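Retro notes
What went well: the complex prediction finally ran end to end.
Inputs used:
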Amino acid sequence: MASSPTFAPLISWTLLVFQSLEFGHSEALTNVSCFGMEREALLKFRQGLIDHSKRLSSWTSKDCREWKGIECSKKTGHIFKLDLRNSCFETSPNGYMSCLDKSSLAGKIHASLAELKHLKYLDLSLNKFSKQKIPQFLGTLQRLEYLNLSSADFDGNIPHHLDWFSSINMLSSLQSLQLRGCSLEKLPHSLSVNFTSLRFLDLSWNLINSTIRFYNFSKLQHIDLRVNHLKGAFPRTLFDNNQQLSFLDASRNLLGGQILKNFSSLYKLRELRLAFNNFDGDVGNSIHGPLESAQTRQLESFKDLEYRSLSQNSIWGPIPVTLGELSSLTESDLSHNKLSGNIPESIGRLSSLEMLDITNNSLNRVVSESHFANLTSLTELSISSNELVLSFDPAWVSPFRVQWIDMSGCDLGPKFPLWLQTQRNISYLYMSNANISDEIPNWLSDISLNVIDLALDNNMLRGPISRLDGNKMQLLQILSLSGNGLSGSMPNSLCAMKNLILLGDNRLSGQITNSLCHMKQLEVLILHKNGFDQVLPKCLSNLTNLRLLDLSDNNFTGEIPSFGRHSRSLVVIDLEKNSFTGGIPSQLCQLNYLQFLSLAQNNISGSIPSCFNGFLSMVGDINYQSYWMYSPSIIVMVNTKGTSRIYDKTLRFFHSIDLSANNLNGEISEELTRLVELQNLNLSRNNLSGKIPSNIGIHLHTVDDESVYRGNDELCGALF
Ligand SMILES: *[C@@H]1O[C@H](CO)[C@@H](O)[C@H](O)[C@H]1NC(C)=O
Ligand SMILES: *[C@@H]1O[C@H](CO)[C@@H](O)[C@H](O)[C@H]1NC(C)=O
Ligand SMILES: *[C@@H]1O[C@H](CO)[C@@H](O)[C@H](O)[C@H]1NC(C)=O
Ligand SMILES: *[C@@H]1O[C@H](CO)[C@@H](O)[C@H](O)[C@H]1NC(C)=O
Ligand SMILES: *[C@@H]1O[C@H](CO)[C@@H](O)[C@H](O)[C@H]1NC(C)=O
Ligand SMILES: *[C@@H]1O[C@H](CO)[C@@H](O)[C@H](O)[C@H]1NC(C)=O
Ligand SMILES: *[C@@H]1O[C@H](CO)[C@@H](O)[C@H](O)[C@H]1NC(C)=O
Ligand SMILES: *[C@@H]1O[C@H](CO)[C@@H](O)[C@H](O)[C@H]1NC(C)=O
Ligand SMILES: *[C@@H]1O[C@H](CO)[C@@H](O)[C@H](O)[C@H]1NC(C)=O
Ligand SMILES: *[C@@H]1O[C@H](CO)[C@@H](O)[C@H](O)[C@H]1NC(C)=O
Ligand SMILES: *[C@@H]1O[C@H](CO)[C@@H](O)[C@H](O)[C@H]1NC(C)=O
Ligand SMILES: *[C@@H]1O[C@H](CO)[C@@H](O)[C@H](O)[C@H]1NC(C)=O
């Protein structure tokens, strides 16, 4: 009753405004065409820009409220929003974006923009302002609440010129500041700032290497500092008086120390990402510091934590029992650290946990059913590269259905783990080097209906390979069985598989039949180091998609199939260490993309065909950059006992011909001088005459066999 009189006038006032808007009763409030001054300012701003794709073609009409990217206040008519973000599409989940360059705005940002005094929202992200400074006048836009200059090709790398920052610092209304990928290198030593309203700060993908001290960020909810060069201790002041932080990403920096000792104020933290840093210290003292101190409200404070990544640091010590208290945790990534001891059984209480990754630590005890008792949400489990022994009751029925499971390097044996029988939705199953000494169970094919990648290499699997039923594994792309004791000949059903087969280092034998040629999609065939001793079917040369053929280290006999016109996708042919006879078929010269040819250690005779300049890739006539780009599936790893072969994109830098240890005769052909991209040419131990052309190897960049087979870390890093 008492409140109705106060409400009544308020309501009618609102109605009045509404009416005036709709029907134009009040000139002052409605239908103000855009303000002349603001229109002029925008036109000047536009003049400074280069707009190839004519994105701003609507910027001509009299009323600038109709212009693209502009929004005006219905009440005052003033422009409050300018959104000129370029359109992009995401290409990868790591945050790299690929933008439509042609729709980029370029040129200069005219200071006339400062006339838009009522601007609250400014987004210039993903354009190409080609290395100009972040404009200082932005600091005069006092009403700005949202500023997004991400990836707009600004050059923030102007030492001792932090003017832009001090001006932005004046923006006490700013709530959201995004300077992702702005080449920022320096920030003021201490960000003692006026950003008292700031809730969202993105400084990721810059080059910031100065120490940041955050003060007065008491409202910050989201801070993204990932991929910078931040060094030293974590900017703890960030936490001072901040009870709002729910998202913190400082991954991929050079931060160190025992940062997490005091998280007690971060009641609302939901996501914590600190992977790829140098943090060390006892894990119990860090994230769980507050938990150890028990009971109190600190414990509660982490109830909301959903995602946590501390991967790739140097955190040590046992996983605290209190981990089981983080009841909201959905993802926990502790991989690549130095954790030791056992995994606490309390982990089995995390019924929200979807992803657990503790790969590559020194955890070393027995894992049993109780560790998984209530993990009903688990879909990704990675526990490889520890010293764990998995010991489950054979009758155990797991409460989860995993899609990704990596238990490589764990002791799962000697029997093939029976509990996997109920896992009917696996896409990736890795159990390499897992001390399994058993036959392949018949049910493995039944649980593999969705499996894309199956790795069982380096166990002691025995019995016939025909236990694997390719008909049931229609999605299979990679099969690693190397380093086992499997026997028998390849079942036709495996030959029906569409993509990749890896079967190195077994005791497979017998004949490769014509049925292999029905695998029209086959891109990679590796039968390295088995016991094959027959003639290859001629039709192999008709596999039009075959890129990589490794039949090395068997005892194949007969002639080399005439790979040529129909197999022009071939990049790698490795037939070394066999008993091939006959000559080198001249059709080979049609393999324009060939980069690696080894026929070494066979009984091949005759002369070297004088057409090797048909290997255009070796001549340097192929834009293989684009070729490789469109052949992503060439990335293949073959693990054999002791050595590991990786055929990946590093191959694109390697060109090699090895014909050594055969019965070749005749002159070394002139044509070989054209193969300027070759880094390795081995013709030794034949009966050839003439000289090895001297210009071979001009592209040699100390690449040796290691780099072909092991790959180059940096390049692999870029790949995965
Ligand atoms: C109000 O603005 C619209 C365009 O936004 C225009 O068509 C109309 O004539 C204007 N009315 C008055 C009274 O100015
Ligand atoms: C800022 O701009 C970038 C690039 O357009 C975009 O990905 C990001 O989501 C924007 N940030 C916010 C909070 O809108
Ligand atoms: C904070 O802003 C006020 C004006 O809004 C200004 O006078 C003061 O210098 C600013 N402080 C810092 C540290 O930038
Ligand atoms: C930051 O990097 C620049 C060059 O990139 C270097 O000159 C400077 O010394 C670095 N600063 C710190 C604090 O490491
Ligand atoms: C900002 O932080 C500093 C250091 O903690 C403090 O002295 C100052 O009072 C704070 N200013 C505001 C406006 O909160
Ligand atoms: C942890 O934070 C609390 C509250 O902010 C503070 O009182 C205490 O001194 C801090 N402890 C350490 C070790 O920083
Ligand atoms: C294990 O982690 C360390 C870093 O802690 C890293 O150097 C090493 O390469 C990792 N090993 C594997 C197999 O991933
Ligand atoms: C598993 O969850 C159920 C229901 O939430 C609960 O009753 C049971 O005690 C839990 N068991 C363990 C081992 O946490
Ligand atoms: C492999 O399993 C056997 C039992 O089958 C066990 O004695 C041995 O220690 C295990 N080896 C490794 C490396 O785990
Ligand atoms: C099976 O896995 C797929 C992803 O591979 C997922 O989308 C689906 O929900 C899963 N189904 C069940 C029943 O778990
Ligand atoms: C390869 O395919 C072509 C056309 O399909 C066919 O004529 C030829 O006989 C095949 N060659 C072999 C060796 O199978
Ligand atoms: C390879 O086959 C030839 C004859 O076909 C045989 O003489 C030779 O012993 C075999 N070599 C091996 C390593 O099996």
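What we learned: The pocket of 2-acetamido-2-deoxy-beta-D-glucopyranose (ligand 3) is lined by residues 169-170, 172, 192, 194 (CB under 6 Å).
What to try next: split runs per interface for comparison.
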